[in-house]
Design brief:
214 residues, alpha/beta, 5-stranded parallel sheet, 49% helix, 15% strand, binds BIS(adenosine)-5'-pentaphosphate, binds zinc ion, Adenylat/UMP-CMP_kin, cytoplasm, zinc, Adenylate_kinase_lid-dom
Length: 214
């Protein structure tokens, strides 16, 4: 099973992807996580992308397609969850070509629909465990013990550099200009499914499961 989670910043793509990894043994490919790793490890590419990401602009197609290609060329797995990729029509075409080359299919594109007002709330309350990557929210998904990750106990909880009002505005603009055309693209390809991303995390997970088990 290869699936794409499509949706604006804060729609809950990462949250649902992590659940699918646990529940279905799929492999999460988040280009955002890969780019943040490159930034943190201080590679040449990391230095190039850091400012672009902090502003909320999209990184070039060439860089992200290269990252995905590297992962797809690795060992064979049960399936991939593409989280935050593709984000442009060029990336969607490239993914189609890469999958075809490997004899793989794209089984579902799940659009997570959330309105802008809710996104601001989601993004401003988000924090992440630096050790295991678990995603939390100040009000909708707090840690059980304050200051420590439920999953691994780490106290390295952090907020993202681009989770501020100004960068979020730019991320949303980029989404509507460059990424939202993919909804029509995949609708016409016949594999688009839409779920209500405004529902509670467990209910969104149920809608996603219903799409995958249809
Ligand atoms: P990326 O890391 O992909 O960020 P994003 O798309 O902005 O998505 P987010 O990670 O912000 O949100 P999410 O949908 O995963 O939501 P989450 O589950 O965390 O990209 C960052 C940057 O990298 C881009 O701006 C760009 O510069 C670059 N980049 C990445 N990929 C690229 C590409 N392909 N091409 C070019 N550039 C690229 O949830 C958000 C919050 O809400 C959390 O606090 C969570 O706990 C909470 N929450 C989740 N679900 C619910 C729910 N149902 N109810 C209540 N709260 C919820
Ligand atoms: Zn953790």
């Amino acid at each position: 099973t290869n699936i794409i989670l499509l949706g604006p910043p804060g729609a809950g793509k990462g949250t649902q992807a992590r659940r699918l990894v646990e529940e279905r043994g799929l492999v999460q490919l988040s280009t955002g996580d890969m780019l943040r790793e490159a930034k943190d490890s201080g590679t040449e590419m990391g230095k190039i992308v850091a400012d672009v990401m902090a502003r909320g602009d999209l990184v070039t197609d060439e860089i992200v397609i290269g990252l995905i290609e590297e992962k797809l060329d690795g060992e064979k797995v049960g399936g991939f969850i593409f989280d935050g990729f593709p984000r442009t029509l060029a990336q969607a075409d490239a993914l189609g070509a890469l999958l075809a080359r490997k004899g793989e299919t794209l089984d579902a594109v799940i659009e997570m629909r959330v309105d802008d007002a809710a996104l601001v709330d989601r993004i401003s309350g988000r924090f992440t465990c630096g050790a295991c990557g678990e995603v939390y929210h100040d009000t909708t998904k707090p840690t059980k013990i304050e200051g420590a990750c439920d999953e691994c106990g780490s106290t390295d909880l952090k907020r993202r550099a681009d989770d501020n009002a100004e960068s979020l505005r730019q991320r949303l603009m980029e989404y509507y200009k460059k990424t939202s055309p993919l909804i029509g693209y995949y609708y016409h390809a016949g594999n688009l499914a839409t779920v209500d991303g405004l529902a509670a995390i467990d209910d969104v997970a149920k809608s996603v499961a219903a799409v995958l088990d249809r």
